[in-house]
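User
Here is a favour to ask of a fellow structure person. I am asking you to supply a protein in sequence and structure-token form. Please set it down just below, with no commentary around it:

Assistant
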Amino acid sequence: MDYTKKALRIAYKNKRQQLSEADIETSSIAIANQLLRLPIWEKKYFHIFLSIVNHKEVDTEFILHLLAGKDKDIIISKSDFATRKMTHFLLTDTTKIKTNEFNIPEPVDGIEVPSSKIEVVLVPLLAFDTLGHRVGYGKGFYDQFLSECKPETIKIGLSFFEAVPKIEGIFETDIQLGYCVTPQKIYTF
């Protein structure tokens, strides 16, 4: 198999499209349950992505309930496609969520939170390898964001699929994950 980012992007977008709604729900619940086993629950500030339904991403609704139940501060982002930067907002009962032109659910506005305050980031991805490198959609939003976080920030990828051996073409600017959680297991890097 070709392990270049481009080939993995195509292969894993296709793999995701094969998943049924029931597969996504079952796997997303399993991922949420796996997260409970990680040593992260003493942390307070958790950044989470809101799932892009038509991309068949991990449904983070179950994780949102988990974080709310544990009284964590939940942070979500808004993406600026001109600058490739993300602005982070505290998710509250009054946060209005709107889907942007790319079908990404985002907060309209709210209380802004600096990247330096975030302690745990749940990272979307298409594929990842046994070394903790990931392949996203290729726009660089998360690499930019993760580079702004403190070095001790815990970075956790969420994936429906298991790791590939080694992604080819990793850049120095690509930020490694600390963990990746799949429905079957937790990878630690």
Notes: Residues 5-188 form a domain with the Rossmann fold fold (CATH 3.40.50.10420). Residues 21-35 form the longest helix (15 residues). The chain has one domain: 5-188.
